[in-house]
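Predict the 3D structure for this chain.
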Amino acid sequence: MKTAQIRQKFLDFYASKGHTIEPSASLIPHNDKTLLFVNAGMVPFKDVFSGVEKRSYSRAVSCQRCVRAGGKHNDLENVGYTARHHTFFEMLGNFSFGDYFKREAIQYAWEFLTVELGLPKEKLWVSVFEEDDEAEDIWVNEIGFPRNRISRCGAKDNFWQMGDTGPCGPSSEIFYDHGEDIAGGPPGHADEDGDRYIEIWNLVFTQYDKQEDGYLKPLDAPCVDTGMGLERLAAVLQHKNNNYDTDGFKSLTKAIVELTQEDSSIKQDNASVRVIADHIRSTAFMIVDGVIPSNEGRGYVLRRIIRRAIRHGHKIDINKVFSIA
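Done. Predicted structure below.
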């Protein structure tokens, strides 16, 4: 299944469940001065979660473009060297604003993955917040998920918050098992950082609005905020263990390799090739949304990304490298 098909299938599935399809917002947050860029699918809905803004619907679904290249969520230096880090990515998400909560969020996710996409149930693993008995009970007694494939994890992994303040709450993550021939263990285990078990979906049960003094103020109406990386899901459905091997990147990496014709050792799996492919995507979308290279703020982040791409272009001897003054 191609990336574009996956994106549309997700939107259509949740539309059939009564969700309003919201187009991706700009990468520049309009309602949060604490962020340089939209870094998660819920950012455009932050005021809705906190009750500041009201909308005409209580369920939404989106495929939000995101950038993580600065601040708390800074993946820049990992890009190109890991299978799943990107500066730019698309996040699939479904949201409930005081409508449904844990039960429906888990049921919808399970139906989408195992029925709509046909993922083998035995290839999935789940984690829940260590204090969230309710979520585990839904997984075990309503979904029928094996308890021995559920990890109970601490706040570091299963209590989500976008920033130092704002909407937050416990989460339940869904992982895909890429198989025994790949190193790594399930969530909560000592070797969880391997590439065998990959998180594909984070279901956040937004119950609180964290205040500046750290107080977790209960929300009047609990909400649901989920996030699933489109690139990660594409890798699973295209039977790849690396996002850069999916259709969303292959045309870019192929074109980059063609610029290094004098060195036949440069292949599409070269780290510098992947860096450039990722940075082309982020640069293009940042400029489309009005960011230009500069010495501060968003423009400085863009400039760093461009310079990093140029540096890696030099490393693999691309003859036509463009520089900025």
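The CA atoms of residues 2 and 249 lie 12 Å apart.
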